[in-house]
Amino acid sequence: MPMKTTLCLCVGALLSCAIATSAQAYASDPAEAAFDEAFGQAVRDVRRTRTTGDDAKFAQRLFDEAESGQHAADLTLRLYEKAYEFGLRDARGYPPANSALDKLLEKDESQKFEIGEMRLVLWEKWYEADPQVNAFDPDDYLDLCISLGNEAAEADDVILALKFLNRGNRFGSRNKSARLNDVRDTISDLMRLKKINQEIETLTEALATDPQAADKLAMVFLADLDDPMQAATYAGQMSDKELADKVVLATKEFAEATPEEAHQNGLFYNGVAGNAKTGEPAAMLIRARVWLTEYLSRDPGDDQAAQVMASKDMLAEIDSDLLKRGIGKKLRRKMSSLLRGEGQFDRPAEIQAAIDKGVQWLYTQRKEDTHWEQDANKTHRNWGGYTALVVYALLMADEEPKLNGDLSRSVYFMMNADMTGTYSLCFRIHAWEVMPRRERYRQVLTRDINKLRGGATRHGFWGYTMKGNDVKPGSRLDLSTTLAGGLGLWIGEEVGGITPKKVYWERTARALIDHQLDDNGWCYNPATGQQSQGAMTAGALALLYAGYDHLTAPTQEKADEVIERGMKWMEENFSATTNVNRGGHKNYYFAAVQHAGLFSGQRTFRELDWYDSIAEHLIKTQGPDGSMGNVSETAFAIAFLCRGGIIHEPSDLQKDAPEAEEEEDDSLFGYPNEDDAPAEPPTE
User: What is the DSSP track for 308-325?
Assistant: First the structure.
């Protein structure tokens, strides 16, 4: 048979086979058949050309057809799918392709992972086509990877979650992204979870043959996943009856446990934290601390004096262990609140609502979707300070950078800003203290602390910048910037483990002692001021408490007298509605009051619970949009409400005063001069 005839027969056979296959496909896929009938010739015309411009036009045409509402539901979906397929072939087709994916997800959310994968493919091509003009930045891509990864993990598909996150890691490594660290953190969490799940699977299979498997499973759930409820499931099968009872007991509500049960739970979790195999010792220590605090708060009685003392000693040891892990009083309290969920740590609903509204308003005030700076001049002495203050407040409000791309980008901005001002550095140090996985930024903390040490003048005061040339004894001293500098050093030492020389505290304490006014308080400019003011008096007291342990014995003796006089001023002049003798910047003043109250352990001033009375005022005066003043004042208010007031802290009660019952506050943006306080404190 001639070759030409043979070739024709082969081609004919292939075509027949293809037609038969196509016919079968159409029979099983009516949408494809309908699409081919309506647009088959157009598809063939587009594919016949060598250019891709007509593919982009055809993608837009298909999307418009789908949007017209003239087609059946199944054909409409197919049109969106085809719009994506053809749009992917040319950069001009990326917008309709992206819009088509939006519609497909809207129609069927069960396909979110498949559609997410398609979108990632599209965005990679889109960004690489022209990074300068594409419709998104690398952070958007990583946001999507994190979102898909978290949703896959929640669906118990760790492998798929890691696939999305690893893709984000590769993309973020090639293209500068503020979210890269968050992707890598999530990958680390999932890798750990994957390992734990594999261990759980192995132990579960071994339950029938290994007597130790139940014990091991209980400890995995308790120590590695901090899940006492699941641990209790296996605790009932454990050979160690005492351990089983304690794990089961740990699942009870706090209100149901007797004082003795609370005490035993505290001992148990502290023991778990000391286990070398414990994956999350800090979580166990917090759990132990909460139970021991619960026990001590119930007035166990005189017959348990020895046990009470033992519990107090253990609490002090736990606090020391937590501090070694970088968990100071502020973060410790926050973690305890999350653990309890209700009880004495619970925020009233009206306070939480005010916090939520304030948080949402702050997000609306961002500039360039990144920061909150009020002055575009990057050389301004307060550059970066507004953003650091707001980030600090949002972190205190339990906003999570890893899950929130908006906040993550602001964290990235804040940590990379070239800060030179005392206020800005102090706020960044405060933000560092409550930052998740903050150790990645330890170099920033160390650099900031060293700058503050360099800015401390021999007069005991800080100026607006590290040069200190605006500190002029006899004419201008700035107590507000001094509070910022001193409290920044305090956090660096208390939480960061960076110990400043004692001379800084000695100089500052002597300066505060020497400049206390005759009316027992302090003013903004101690060089010329004659009348004490609310924020400055409260702040000066806080700073004396913060540095007290570093002072020489003679200076401590003088400080005791000065503190007593200053607290007398607070008792006589406290206001829950205004910055006393100053006016304006009232939330800044409330933050200073919180400092003084928490450091001293003083619950009331003028027989008013300072937290409750100030919180009531903030809620009552909050704007309909959620604001509580300007950006900085709203941030101060949110941080104040989140931190709360005095709570029972038994481990602190056994220490000699003066000692910080709680911790420092956000430092204070001050006034540029004595007589003219601006609407926005940092900008003159």
Answer: HHHHHHHHHHHHHHHHHT
**Could you give the CA distance from residue 314 to residue 316 in angstroms, rounded to a whole number?**
5
239, burial (CB in 10 Å: exposed 0-12, middle 13-18, buried 19+):
exposed
The CA distance from 23 to 28, in Å, is 9
H or E segment at 249?
helix 241-249
Residue 293's pLDDT band, with cuts at 50, 70 and 90, is confident
Structure tokens at 46: 């587009």
C-alpha span between 15 and 152 (Å, rounded):
43
User: Cα torsion for 219, 221, 227, 229, to the nearest 10°?
Assistant: -80
Identify which of 505, 515, 504 has the alpha carbon closest to the alpha carbon of residue 565. Answer: 515
**3-state percent breakdown (helix, strand, coil) of the chain, nearest 5:** 65, 0, 30
Tokens standing for residue 506: 């000695």
The DSSP element (H or E) to which 609 belongs, if any, is strand 608-609
Task: Among 3.40.630.30, 3.40.50.720, 1.50.10.20, 3.40.190.10, name the CATH number for the domain at 349-679.
Answer: 1.50.10.20
Strand, coil or helix: what is 604?
A: strand
Q: How far apart are CA 67 and CA 438, in angstroms?
A: 48
176 — phi, psi (to 5°)? -55, 125
What single DSSP character describes residue 221? I
User: 446: part of which helix (H) or strand (E)?
Assistant: helix 442-455
Q: How far apart are alpha carbons 535 and 533 in whole angstroms?
A: 6
The distance from CA 331 to its chain's CA centroid, rounded to whole angstroms, is 11
Residue 427 CB contacts under 8 Å (≥ 6 apart), including other chains: 385, 388, 389, 392, 666, 667
For residues 578 and 82, give the distance between their C-alpha atoms in angstroms, rounded to a whole number. Answer: 64
What are the b/e assignments for 6-38, b being 16+ CB within 10 Å? eeeeeeeeeeeeeeeeeeeebeeeebbbbbbee
Identify the three-state secondary structure at position 524: coil
Residue 338: which of 405, 248, 276, 400 has the closest Cα? 400
Token pair of 320 as six digits: 């020391």
Non-local CB neighbours of 376 within 8 Å, separated by 6+ positions: none
**Paired strand residues for 41:** none
Confidence of residue 332 (pLDDT cuts 50, 70, 90): confident
Contacts of 51 (CB under 8 A, 6+ apart): none
Find where tokens 């020497």 sit.
Answer: 514
Please say if the pLDDT value at position 83 is more than 60: yes
Category of 317 on φ-ψ map: left (φ > 0), alpha (ψ -120 to 50) or beta: alpha
Task: Report the pLDDT averaged over residues 561-589.
Answer: 94
- Cis amide linkage into residue 95, ω under 30° from 0: no
Instruction: Give this prediction's pTM.
Output: 0.80
